[in-house]
Amino acid sequence: MKRQWIIFIIGMLLVLFLPVYAVWQQFVMDRQPTAVEGLLDLSKLDLRNHGAISLNGEWEFYRSQLLTPKDFDRTITVKEDERPRLSGMARLPGAWNDYIAEDGQRMAEGYGTFRLIVQVKPGQALTYGLQTNNIRSASRVFMGGYEIGASGNPGRTADDGVQNNVPFLGFATLSGGRIEIIVQIANYLYTTGGVFTPILFGEQHAIMQSKELYLFADWMTIAGFFTAALYFLGFQQIRKKEPASLYLGLFCLAAIIYVLLHGEKLIDGFWPGLSYEWILKSQLMISALIYYFLLKFVSASVRGGVHPIVMRSYAFLGGASIAVAIIFPSILFSKIEPLLVAFSASCIAYIIGIMLRDLRRRRNSGEYLLTILGIISILMVIITNLLPLIGMPDHGAELATVLMVDDDPVNLQVLRNLLALEGYRLMTASNGQEALEKIQSGQSIDLVIADWMMPGMSGLDLCRSVRRQFSLSALPILLLTARSLPEDVRIGLSAGANDFLRKPVDAEELRARVRTLLELRRSVRNAISAEMAFLQAQIKPHFLYNALNTMIALLPIDPEKTAELLHELSRYLRGSFDFRNRDQLTVLRQEMALVTSYLNLEKARFEDRLQVDYDIQADMNRLVPPLTIQPIVENAVRHGIMRKEEGGRVRILVQELEERLEITVEDNGTGMTPERMEAVREGRAGNGVGLKNINARLLTLFGTELMIDSDPERGTV
């Protein structure tokens, strides 16, 4: 008996090895780059010698828009309101149910476009490929300006397109540099929509190899089930009075169909015309048959194993599931998916429990042990295939970013291993200067963990440099040190550290301190965000009165012009009073729309006294801090142009310089003295419109201040 249990344990370890290894690879060993704000930088990788890369992270998302590369081509002249409208950043893979609706309600049906820029080595002309695996429920992919593949046809309504979800590959030969990837998606068949497994990118051979591995896994599974089916059905022909082998053989045949309907969906090769609706229906029906045959096998092989009431209940529920799948559309029965998964899990647990209990009763059970191992292996395959039905975890929640700084790569790896399972986005730097450059690059970093002793810029020097830009609550710093004297603590706190941790670090203490500092930053950030939203939504009463008085005076003379001004006022108020507008960044198009509405209202009031020049030389989808340009323009109008009797001109210049965006607001009104410029920037002048708030946000986000150049004779820039 002891020997049999040893065989059983070894078999279980072999069965569990693959899923455990997959989890380890996914959550611990995965060190691939992650997309940030729609950009994935792979320029340091030699893709010719690198495997397929998961395009995980933040993608640009365009709700209710099916866009193509032409829509993002700035050389094509179109009306501004016909340009793509960025809805925000979406983290892939993940369900889109939380953000697909305009009103924020959870729903699955809809359509949209995801966009990502992949930065590769310039001049590296290669044939690049993409591999999709599970996109619900129709998709079309563009790469580098070319359409490279589709599954179904995404449409604006269920009747406009064709729903399908079959994995596919696509390739394009490109010269490197910036590669634009656009994915159109529509879903009208399932209760969860979006991208549920990573989209893979890489050189042609890497993508082909990845695809072959997926196909190999499916075909090997089918071969295993087919071999087992032949064995059990052949054995049943010899011993016809024992139905257990018959049910086990039927289970294996049903499992073959199950594998054909999932994963790479090999059924599409055997039956190309089968609609995705019927693939979903068949998945539910074959699942019901699989568990029915398993229960019948256990009932036949284990005396008194399955209670008759359980058997009859499942026969009824299984039949009902098949009837529901045939009669109702998939969008309806997929809504009870959590119940189906829970029922499947309970059925699996019930079957395994019966077989293990019966195993303890038997003494001579070597063959029976092998049968149990086979059944458990099959059940593990089923569980593995059930997980994609539920979908990947929703990554809509923002991940905290932790920057770890140490000159010793071993220490960095230790920190990474200790924090890997906490769900943070981990970044590393090998010295203080590199860490400072990452902090000042504008990347969103929530916590810095730095070693005290490092060559060049030490941890203390890094603290002092960071505190010139960030407060203690804006960017916490945890110092790791072997020092513990009170004087050392005083020096570290004076330099700007929030907390200390003595080396060698204790794993639980490190995690606890990291969680505490991140929670502190999150709480302070939420409070500041609420205050910022309130400040952003403030409207000067006299501006509103003047705008309304202008429209009242204009109404009898020009009703159409009055209607246009009412529309502009509506747009202006909607943008200004949006208390949900707490995002750190918004698209330039949205910010300029607010500026245009404001200036149109002021031009109606001041007529020829106010002249405006727009010079936009940048992509309107570039990201900028919200409500930063309009207050500066308002200052130029109120405190510059309108203080001159003859009025003046405001010029707004937006241009891309290398990798940064430069926004210039220039007026030829009355300028300011140096003392007054400083007072306005710091909010001490009493009549500056939010410039202190803007200056603080620019300093926090980009490490640079608002630049003001003014002369009383020539105006302000």
Count of DSSP helices? 20
Helix content: 40-55%
Radius of gyration: 32 Å
Structural class given helices, strands, pairing? alpha/beta
Task: Please explain how this structure is put together.
- Strands 1, 2, 3, 4, 6, 8, 9, 10 and 12 form a nine-stranded mixed β-sheet that branches.
- The protein has four domains: 36-212, Galactose-binding domain-like (Jelly Rolls), CATH 2.60.120.260; 239-390, no CATH class; 401-525, Rossmann fold, CATH 3.40.50.2300; 537-716, Heat Shock Protein 90.
- Strand 13 (401-405), helix 10 and strand 14 (425-429) form a beta-alpha-beta unit.
- The chain is globular, with a radius of gyration of 32 Å.
- With 717 residues, it is α/β, with parallel strands linked by helices.
- It has 20 helices and 24 strands.
- The longest helix is centred in the N-terminal third of the chain and has 35 residues, at 204-238.
- Keywords: Membrane, Phosphoprotein, Signal, Transmembrane, Transmembrane helix.
- One of its GO terms (cellular component) is membrane.
- Residues 1-22 form the signal peptide.
